[in-house]
Amino acid sequence: MNSLTIEPMFNGRSEARNRVIAHIFKELGLIEQWGSGISRIINACKEQGLPSPKIEEKNDFFDVELIRPRTISER
Question: What is the pLDDT of residues 15-29, one digit of tens each?
């Protein structure tokens, strides 16, 4: 269904799986621009002092794992 692979995704390429929903989000201002999400997520993690998310390509989707900060009781 989706021909997007991990390397072009990191270079800002995007493909909407559901164009109707994507268009509605764009009209509502919930999408800033196409292809900016992954870089914004990575930058937000860096700004908060968190590790970069683990991003893996799995068949026709991407798995994004966000690493939360450890609390004192978890150490």
Answer: 777 889 888 988 998
